[in-house]
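User: Please work through this fold.
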Amino acid sequence: MNLKANLEAILFVSLKPLSSSKLASICGVKTKEVEEALAELKFDYKNRESGLSLIEVGKEYQLSTGEECSALIKDYLKDETSGELSQPSLETLTIIAYRGPIAKIELEKIRGVNCSLILRNLLLRGLVEESFNKKTNENFYSVSLDFLRFLGISLVKELPDFEKMNALKVADRFLNDEEQKNIEEI
């Protein structure tokens, strides 16, 4: 796959802007190559009818919706942030509530699927908060005060069976069993 396609894929799934040096590190190429490919991508988006655009602030890049689609996206997001939560969103929110703060990678191991879009939607709704740990270079997710307020509780520990669910670490045992199966298959 070519560099432009790799950059486009990475920027598509990223929840935050990424620097050209970070993108270069991810793709295993030089920063200058990334900047040239990003300039080409930006040109491509600008010169074709696309619902996407590549935005640049300083040396950080992010995919965004095209300006022509802003009204449509605004209506969609309004529905998305005020409608009912999907089953996968509820599952993700439950895991975050009982296990948070939790890293995205751990959340995805538990659920078995990529959670980027679900996390984005939960962040947009104000149900979860994101924090960055500089030591591990990871984002961690926990439920927000709005989430607690909506449930009428003041602490996560007030969730039903919180102590039991948190102490059992059922997901840890599941993850360890899955990792053991993978090792045995090798």
Notes: The domain at 3-69 is CATH 1.10.10.10 (Arc Repressor Mutant, subunit A). The first strand starts at residue 18 and ends at 19.
